[in-house]
Write a structure and sequence with these properties.
Strand content of chain A: 15-25%
Largest interface: A-B, 43 and 52 residues
Helix content of chain A: 25-40%
Strand order of the largest sheet of chain B: 2-1-3-4-8-7
Radius of gyration of chain A: 19 Å
Oligomer: heterodimer
Number of helices of chain A: 12
Order of helices and strands of chain A: HEHEHEHHEHEHEEEHEEHEHEHH
Number of strands of chain A: 12
Strand content of chain B: 5-15%
């Protein structure tokens, strides 16, 4: 998936001189998660910019440059580090458009790596989808496949609003962190955009609707394959973007299946699972026969393997949740 | 100091072996007996031993994501620290924290895996000491890559304004992952940051544990005597990658070679020999350190993995489920109070 992302960034940089990329270890290293691999050679240090470890400064600087009409892409190495710079993110990047009554806008992309499943403990494993989607003013993108990652990145860079682009480390195709097969999809060489706010039905089914995103799309597909052996057909919906959120696709699916399972690698309370369930109950309570939520049980992500495996939902947890709706 | 330094070096050599088990020939970070990332500190031992030699158990140390050498010098329980690194139930954090997040309240040692974010809590420990009129001090360890962070600069100002007993020890190993120092700051030494805050700033040159010891004696003494914070910048060397598995393709070979040529441990051994300590005595110290390390690692590996159900414990001291009892445990009438 990282190559698809880099391809989109490279194309946009070639076509628009106002696009540049900055972050920690993005130039000579090529991004800790390969998010900028090879770009330095083509674009040099002026446009692939290594920065001091000063998230407040460089994320805030991206806001300032964006308000001048440039199109910065600024990388926060791990989403867990957002706290260092949250004021710039949620008080400036996300709010300046609104506070100015639309007089200024902030056409930047903040990329960031999310996710656990490699035992890196509580400060390096969170997804925090809910945190960014909860605070108004930023679009939130979470690709699950290489095809989606490229199209969504093209769209993110061209978007006139701030976009938070969250890629799961386990999907990037890193040598040291093997990806499942799912994200390795064919990717057209030409550029294309995937509009925000359109969920993708990754597998059709009539017996239950599984709503998820990122890594857990692939775990849900594994669960669906296992369920199919018992004749249970689960529909797997990949949200792809959280802001804007495609509630219609979810509701339409639940009207068909009557059963809803929401799967999230983020914390359970006050998050994505509650939001999706509430959206469905608002619009389609009559169609709803059963609901299950599968998410992190409101504890920081533990280090030891036995503990991390316990709290991060796996395919078998999703399978069990779908069965529980029967 | 020599014992701490050789313990730390050998400890990390052994951890490296264990870490790579199951990760060869293809490096897969989620394989093998040690979970997660591993950041080793070979080449940085002098900064740990030279400073912590002046500290008591009631003095606080906060360490960053590369903590083992500092933990060893501060006297953190080696066995339980090792069990934590292996993710075992009897580890310092019951397997929940891991190698970047070691906490040993017995010797007031804590960690943060986020750059410079150990500095504010160190200032807080200094504040507590001052408020309680004790003479304990706090030491915050950070790398040279962290000196541009608000967490460091704000804590420095806070400690300066309140004359807090804090020593900021900057371990300058020249590299912030792939970033050489000259590309991210315009100062040669982190000690230069002291001027703008009107605190003491001292830089100690290459690999000289004795010089670190002397400089730290002054800095820790200044703090203990109520004379405020110091930045103590120590030039160290990164003999390995930023983390295990770091290909270091961004780093010139000669820089890596230069880092391994200098060795604070050998230099201290030479100093000790010059003082009349014989090789036999040094060998005995090394042998004892190796035994201690081997014993800790063997013990830790034999400890049980945590029960998965334990994942749900410890988010709070008082579990958050249910309703907290807020009934007052006194009778209002008996206190002489009345309803208002």
């Amino acid at each position: 998936m990282s190559r698809a992302i880099v391809e989109a960034i490279g194309t946009e940089m070639r076509e628009n001189e106002e696009v540049f990329y900055m972050g920690e270890d993005v130039a000579d290293y090529g991004g800790i998660f390969d998010s900028t691999q090879g770009l330095l050679e083509e674009f040099g240090h002026d446009r692939i910019v290594d920065v001091p470890i000063s998230e407040t400064a460089y994320l805030g600087a991206a806001v300032g440059a964006a308000q001048q009409g440039m199109r910065p892409i600024a990388e926060l190495m791990f989403v867990d580090f957002f706290g260092v710079a949250m004021d710039q993110i949620y008080n400036n990047m996300a709010k300046n458009t609104y506070m100015s009554g639309g007089a200024v806008n902030v056409p930047m992309v903040m990329t960031t790596a999310v996710g656990g499943t490699y035992n890196d403990a509580a400060q390096h494993s969170q997804t925090l989808y809910g945190t960014f989607a909860h605070l108004p003013g930023m679009k939130v993108v979470v690709p699950a496949t290489a095809y989606d990652a490229k199209g969504l990145m093209h769209n993110a860079i061209r978007d006139d609003d701030p976009v938070v682009y969250m890629y799961h480390k386990r999907l990037m195709g890193l040598g040291w962190l093997p990806a499942p097969d799912g994200p390795k999809t064919p990717v057209p060489e030409t550029d294309y955009t995937i509009p925000f706010g359109r969920a993708d039905v990754k597998r059709e089914g009539s017996d239950a609707t599984v709503v998820t995103l990122g890594l857990h799309v692939h775990r849900a597909l594994d669960a669906a394959a296992a369920l199919a052996e018992d004749g249970i057909e689960a529909e797997v919906i990949d949200l792809r973007t959280l802001v804007p959120l495609d509630r219609e696709t979810v509701i339409e699916s639940v009207r068909k299946t009557g059963r809803l399972v929401v799967v999230d690698e983020d914390y359970r309370s006050f998050g994505l699972t509650g939001e999706i369930v509430a959206s469905v109950t608002d619009e389609a309570l009559d169609a709803l026969e059963a609901v299950e939520r599968v998410a992190l049980p409101d504890v920081p992500i533990p280090y030891a393997r036995s503990l991390e495996t316990e709290v991060i939902p796996g395919a078998t947890d999703i399978e069990a949740a779908v069965r529980a709706t029967r | 100091m020599y014992a701490d330094m050789v313990t730390a070096r050998y400890y990390e050599e052994r951890l490296q072996e264990e870490y790579l088990e199951g990760k060869q020939p293809k490096f897969d970070i989620s394989a093998g007996p040690i979970p997660g990332e591993l950041h080793l500190a070979a080449g940085q031992e002098a900064a740990a031993a030279g400073v912590c030699a002046h500290l008591r158990d009631d003095d606080t140390v906060t360490a960053p994501h590369r903590p083992h050498h500092v933990a060893i010098a501060k006297g953190v329980d080696l066995k339980r620290m090792t069990a934590e690194i292996f993710g075992r139930e009897t580890g310092l954090g019951s397997g929940k924290g891991g190698h970047m997040h070691l906490f040993d309240p017995e010797v007031n040692f804590a960690c943060s895996g986020i750059i410079a974010q150990g500095c504010p809590p160190a200032a807080g420990a200094g504040l507590a000491a001052k408020k309680r009129n004790t003479d304990s001090v706090a030491v915050a360890y950070l790398g040279e890559g962290a000196i541009d962070q608000g967490g460091f600069l704000e804590s420095l100002n806070f400690a300066a304004v309140h004359d807090l007993p804090v020593v900021f020890v900057v371990e300058d190993n020249d590299w912030a992952i792939s970033m050489p120092q000259e590309r991210v700051t315009d100062v040669e030494s982190a000690a230069s940051r002291a001027g703008g805050f009107e605190v003491a700033g001292v830089a100690v040159d290459h690999d000289d544990a004795v010089a670190v010891y002397e400089a730290a004696r002054e800095a820790v003494g200044r703090a203990r005597d109520g004379n405020g914070p110091t930045i103590l910048s120590v030039q160290v060397h990164r003999r390995m990658g930023h983390f295990m598995g770091d290909p270091e393709s961004y780093r010139p070979d000669e820089d890596r070679e230069a880092a391994t040529e200098r060795d604070s441990i050998e230099r201290l051994a030479a100093d000790l020999r010059a003082e009349g300590v014989d090789d036999e005595a040094l060998a005995a110290i090394r042998a004892e350190a190796h035994d201690r390390v081997d014993e800790a690692i063997e013990w830790a590996k034999g400890e049980p993995n945590p029960d998965p159900e334990a994942a749900y414990e410890d988010a709070f001291v008082n579990p958050a489920s249910g309703v907290t009892d807020t009934e007052p445990d006194f009778d209002l009438a008996e206190t002489g109070g009345e309803e208002r």
